[in-house]
Amino acid sequence: MGRCLINEIGIRNFVLIENLRLPFDAGLNVLTGETGAGKSILLDAIGLLTGDRFRSETVRQGAGRSEIDGVFASPAHRAFGRWWDAHGFEKTGEIVIRREGYPDGRSRAFLNDRPVTLNTLQELGSFLVDVHGQNEHQHILQPAVQMDLLDRFAGLEPAAGEIEPFYQTWKQLTEELNTGQLSEQERLQTLDLYRFQLNEIDQAKLTIGEDDELAQRLPELKNAEKLRGLAQSAYGALYEQEGSSLERLGQAQRAFENLKALAPSVQPLSKELIEVQSRLEEIAHQLKMLAERWEADPEAVEQILTRQDQIARLQKKYGGSVAMILQQAETLRREVDRLDNSDATRQDLEKRVEQARQALERVCQRVSLKRRKAAGALGNAVQKQLADLGLKQAVFRCVVETIPVSLTGVDRVTFEWAPNPGEGIQPLKAIASGGEMSRVMLALKTTLAEADAIPTLIFDEVDAGVGGVTAQAVGKKLRALSRHHQILCVSHLPQIASCAQAHFQITKRVSQGRTHAEVVRLESAERLQELARLLGSQVTPISVQHAEEMLVKNQ
């Protein structure tokens, strides 16, 4: 018996359910009930736990919010472990998912009490639950899904996953080769333009920071006379004029010399005064040098203006700063070198494209050979399962055709079948009815049971279009499948319900003017009564006896 993944589910104020806590069995769980009793409510609740969008109308009339929680056992396979670790969750044996929905349409999602997005729940749900209903029947008709099923059956998922990086490398190199191919005239024209632009930048002999230095020097040169006068005035006040600051400091220093003889405690002050005097002498010297430097030089001003104009024109063409212009020059230099040596570059790129193509072809061929070998085995295995499900004359094939290379290789996988003798074999999507599709889905799931990593399978409408002996076969097949998976199945057939390890009944009742949906696990006599009801419109001693015989036979 498979490991129980959905341990239990709690539902409060959701559609017709006021308060429900429901534990599930590890094997085959079947839900039955009269038409309109609300069998889909439970599946909708599980859908919300795995990332479906909340609808405001599902909040029970008069309630402030609806709340759904589910306790799941953690899957053991490595892909789930990598996902769990990547999202930063603590390792634990249980996963608790909770959804809250409000009448105004707002909803919240929690995973182990941590708020999460619906996308996170959808990703997690892909590891936990696989739902099979009418929409999923359409899903399996897609060629990409059929290829995935074949790869899972053959254990080829890791090998098939290796194709994509080889394909992306080959595609990138091919695009680079195609976009880099120019006619000889285009090559010469482009080369001439790049050489002109590079020569224009090189002749300017730019240096990093030159534009900032010119911007700083220009105001000084324009105001040279005024700056010279101010510097000379400051120099005179400090050093040159009679009664200058340094002259008075000299007088103060001499007075301190006399003070030290009478009061040695002033020695530190005398030392500080000497330091001040030395610093002022240094400042005076620098002012003198500045005054000599600041001479009116109209020619220098004109040279700076000309240089700034030259840099501005280059900036407009090649970048907003000298650094960007020089960076563009390096780019142009590389392009000139590439175009000068285009033949060698193209030959090198063509060689790399061919090497990438050969590597891609090798990995594709390895996978393709294994797919073709596994396709026959998958077809035979599914056909055997279909025979057990009442389609004894059906022919099922998994066909692998060669197509141009893509992310998934060089194969297209198509499921083909003929349900009846004498009919031509055609793609599954062309001729399968709803009832047939249910059995094909079940046959595939049974065939892939051991390879399928998702522990819980939910079947809605698996009994569509079947009855009698075929329904019995479907029930037995679900029971067998439950050895590898936990199964939740909504059914109206007693043949299927009698195969379950756990049988739940969904009923509706009206109390104080309100409708309530209730779900209970049936035991012994209650289960016989429900099976008898499913056998016919009325429960009679004979139908109860038939129900008991069916239960004994299928348990």
Could you explain the architecture of this structure?
This protein has helices at residues 39-49, 78-86, 118-128, 134-140, 143-154, 157-161, 163-180, 184-204, 210-222, 224-240, 245-262, 267-293, 298-318, 322-340, 342-388, 428-431, 434-447, 468-481, 494-497, 524-535, 541-554; strands spanning 6-14, 17-23, 28-33, 66-73, 94-101, 107-111, 114-115, 129-132, 395-406, 409-418, 426-427, 456-460, 486-490, 502-511, 514-521. The model has no long low-confidence stretch (mean pLDDT 83). The strands form 3 sheets. A 6-stranded antiparallel β-sheet has the order 2-1-4-5-6-7, covered by helices on one side. Strands 8-12-13-3-14-15 form a 6-stranded mixed β-sheet. Strands 9-10-11 form a 3-stranded antiparallel β-sheet. The two termini are 14 Å apart. The chain is an alpha/beta fold and 555 residues long. It has 21 helices and 15 strands.
Descriptive terms for the model:
555 residues; alpha/beta; six-stranded antiparallel sheet; six-stranded mixed sheet; 21 helices; 57% helix; 18% strand
Question: What's the topology here?
Answer:
Blueprint: E1 6-14, E2 17-23, E3 28-33, H1 39-49, E4 66-73, H2 78-86, E5 94-101, E6 107-111, E7 114-115, H3 118-128, E8 129-132, H4 134-140, H5 143-154, H6 157-161, H7 163-180, H8 184-204, H9 210-222, H10 224-240, H11 245-262, H12 267-293, H13 298-318, H14 322-340, H15 342-388, E9 395-406, E10 409-418, E11 426-427, H16 428-431, H17 434-447, E12 456-460, H18 468-481, E13 486-490, H19 494-497, E14 502-511, E15 514-521, H20 524-535, H21 541-554
Parallel strand pairs: 3-13, 3-14, 8-12, 12-13
Antiparallel strand pairs: 1-2, 1-4, 4-5, 5-6, 6-7, 9-10, 10-11, 14-15
